[in-house]
Amino acid sequence: MTPDRSAPRRRARLAALGGYAPARVVTNAEIERRVDTTDEWIRTRTGIRERRYAAPDETTADMAAVAAERVLASAGLPSAEVDMVIVPTATPDALFPATAAIVADRIGARRAAAYDLSAACSGFVYALAQATALVEAGMAGNVLVVGSEVLSRVTDHDDRATCILFADGAGGALVTAGDAETTTGFLAFDLGADGSGADQLVLPVGGDRRLAAAGGAPADACIRMDGPAVFRFATRVMVESAQRLLDGLSMGIADIDLVVAHQANSRIMDHAAERLGIPPERLFNNLELFGNTSSASIPMALAQARDAGRLSPGDMLLLVGFGGGLTWASSVVRYEPLGEEHQWA
Ligand code: COA
């Protein structure tokens, strides 16, 4: 892309959504057959009933490309108009080339610049912040942000503390330049990192496509997690970050139409909902069917909320991500779609 530095003042707009879930459904019953756990334990401690796994030949880029195409179809935007593709992911196809470059090529976004972003489960909202900055600085007009993960390939399927949680999928959004007079767009971000908790959630390897042939990463290269410590961090940071944003905007939870948080554990979301006073109908939860898909979880949830009629044009959203790093990232944004087409299925 060639940055247009002469652009007039404009606001970044959340203009389209799209998601993709791989076909293979893995139920709690299937996990019960491999490790010492029960469907009841998993459902009551996490809210998860089933999750999706990528096909053996399916990679992070493959899933991201499908989600990206759905975002563009939803917006009615030709891929040639995309200036930048950002793929937040913890499981890139390789350290280089960037998965985003593969996605840009796959969807025909010939003039787009492309890079990956590493902020674990906070990655999608971090990437939205970058997209906003690029658009509002006049560096880009249309930025595609696509979170995509093949966590099943880097999960130790004999570790009952993690194999119940992590799953695969992709979801994306188009951030586009809106007229400053008429666009609300992204009102605020709250981003943070606390590396003192770096060892509480660790993934030593990425999503190398050769791992599929090898049946996944070796156990000592898979996700390691101090579950209770991450749980304490997540419940604290979700409340604090959301409250900081709302206070900074002189807004209350009553001004928010829908809260879409990182889908890690229903108990984390329920705790935050209670502390922040979020009524159940304004908290979106798709954990039951999709588990924790890291950087893909918020955009998958957004696309599903839209398709389920829970997210309408003009709605004010509160997005909250948290995860490895430890990191967190939240935003308040009005959903201002270009198109109405529903693309999830
Ligand atoms: N099935 C049955 N028992 C299990 C189990 C499973 N799948 N996983 C752990 N247990 C056991 C533990 O061994 C422990 O047994 P013990 O008391 O005999 O030692 C007991 O359950 C309680 O373990 P604990 O780890 O304290 O459980 P928990 O209530 O904290 O739930 C998690 C475990 C992983 C579900 C929870 O800590 C969690 O969700 N943490 C946050 C994880 C997360 O969101 N990570 C990603 C953030 S992006």
What does this structure look like?
With 345 residues, the protein is of the alpha/beta class. The protein has a single domain (1-337), classed as 3-Layer(aba) Sandwich (Peroxisomal Thiolase, Chain A, domain 1). It is 30% helix and 24% strand. It has 10 helices and 13 strands. The protein has a 5-stranded mixed sheet, sandwiched between helices. Helix 3 crosses helix 4 (99-107) and helix 7 (227-248) runs parallel beside helix 8 (266-276). The mean pLDDT is 94. Bound molecules: coenzyme A. The site of coenzyme A has 18 residues, from helix 2 and helix 7.
Features:
345 residues; alpha/beta; Peroxisomal Thiolase, Chain A, domain 1; 5-stranded mixed beta sheet; 4-stranded mixed beta sheet; 13 strands; globular; binds coenzyme A
Molecules bound to protein: coenzyme A
Rg, Å, rounded: 19 Å
Put simply, the count of helices is 10
- The CATH topology label is Peroxisomal Thiolase, Chain A, domain 1
Q: Regarding CATH, which class? A: Alpha Beta
Q: How would you describe the shape?
A: globular
> Could you name the CATH homologous superfamily?
Thiolase/Chalcone synthase
How is the main sheet built? 5 strands, mixed
Compute the number of structural domains.
Answer: 1
Strand content: 15-25%
Order of helices and strands: EEHHEHEHEHEEEEHEHEHHHEE
User: What is the straight-line distance between the termini?
Assistant: 32 Å
Kindly report the average pLDDT value: 94
**Share of helix, binned:** 25-40%
Number of strands: 13
Low-confidence stretches: none
Question: Would you identify the CATH architecture?
Answer: 3-Layer(aba) Sandwich
Strand order of the largest sheet: 1-7-6-4-5
